[in-house]
Amino acid sequence: MGEREPVDAATALSKFFDVVSEEAAANPQFARRLLEAASIKVVFRGDEATAAVDPMLVAMEGYDEFRRTFGSMTVAQVKKIAKNAGLITQQEKLPTGLFPLIDLLWDRASQQVHDRYPRREAAE
């Protein structure tokens, strides 16, 4: 590898943040983790949410936010997220319709929040 010319701190930081920004734009899960680490609340909806949303984190925001977030998706998207989060299984008989499915996921996600953080109650 050839040697690089030294640059000033502002240029180095600018290049670094460009790379972080590009990765966050290409990888919604990375973007969500960055925002969580910075304690910045961002609302994900629709297609963007299917790649970035964590049902337990959304459950911590309460029932209304849970329904708004998952209500912006299709049944297939909600099922995919629920399977990836371990809230449902492939063999399981699921309710028909989006909002009955969301209510089932709310019950399971909020229970997991309660189990993981017994002192913190899932907002209902």
Can you describe what's shown?
With 124 residues, the protein is mainly alpha-helical. It contains 7 helices and no strands. Helix 2 packs across helix 3, helix 5 crosses helix 7 and helix 6 runs parallel beside helix 7. The longest helix is centred in the C-terminal third of the chain and has 19 residues. The radius of gyration is 19 Å and the shape is elongated. The model has no long low-confidence stretch (mean pLDDT 84).
Number of helices: 7
- Give the % helix: 55-70%
Q: Structural class given helices, strands, pairing?
A: mainly alpha
Residue ranges: pLDDT <50 for 5 or more in a row? none
Shape: elongated
**Alpha carbon gap, first and last residue:** 57 Å
Largest pleated sheet: none
What does the average pLDDT come to? Answer: 84
- The strand count comes to 0
Written as H for each helix and E for each strand, in order along the chain, the element string is: HHHHHHH
Percentage of residues in DSSP E strands: under 5%
Whole-angstrom Rg: 19 Å
Could you write a compact summary of the structure shown?
63% of the residues lie in helices and 0% in strands. It has 124 residues and is mostly helical. The radius of gyration is 19 Å and the shape is elongated.
Task: Please tag this protein with its features.
single chain; 124 residues; mainly alpha
